[in-house]
Amino acid sequence: MVTLRGEIDHTVKNKLTEALLSYGSVTPPRTVVDLSGVTFMDSSGINVLIAAHQSMSDAQGWLRIADAQASVLRVLELVGLDQVIGCHPTVEQALVP
Q1: Residues 33, 2: contact at Cβ < 8 Å?
Q2: Do the beta carbons of residue 41 and residue 81 sit within 8 Å?
Q3: Which residue, 22, 24, 23, 20, is CA-closest to 32?
Q4: How far apart are CA 20 and CA 56, in angstroms?
Q5: DSSP assignment, residue 83?
Q6: At what angle do helices 13-21 and 43-58 cross, to 10 degrees?
Q7: pTM of the predicted model, to two decimals?
Q8: Which residues contact 49 (CB under 8 A, 6 or more apart)?
Q9: DSSP E strand stretches across 9-94
C-alpha cells in the first residue's frame, strides 16, 4: 500500500514513480494507492499511475486506487482512468481480492 498526501504534480513525479515501480520480488506486484490525502493531481500524476498500472499488469499484478477526494476522483473520471484502474471508495474495499 502506498499512501499519498498533498499535491501530485511534476515536482513529485519522480518520487511517485520510484515508489510505485520499485518492486523486485517474484510475487506479482499488487498495490493499493490511498489518495485520501491528495488535494490536487495533474497530468504528471495521471501518467505515473498509467505507467504503474501497465507495469504491474505486465507482471501479472494489479494497481488499485482508494479513497480519492471528490476533486481528484473527478480528474480520474474526466480522463477515463477510473475505467482502466479500479477506483474504490475505501482502502478496505480496494484490498478485497
Answers
A1: yes
A2: no
A3: 20
A4: 9
A5: G
A6: 20
A7: 0.91
A8: 20, 33, 63, 65, 81, 85
A9: 30-41, 62-66, 86-88
Q: What is the pLDDT of residues 48-78, one digit of tens each?
A: 999 999 999 998 999 999 999 999 999 999 9
C-alpha cell at 52: 504503474
Cβ(58)–Cβ(34) below 8 Å: no
CB-based contact 44:79 (threshold 8 Å): no
Residues facing residue 6 across a β-bridge: 38
Answer yes or no: are the C-beta atoms of 84 and 52 closer than 8 Å.
no
**Which grid coordinates are listed for 16?**
511517485
What is the gyration radius of the CA atoms in the chain, in angstroms?
A: 12
pLDDT tens for 26-53 read: 567 899 999 999 999 999 999 999 999 9
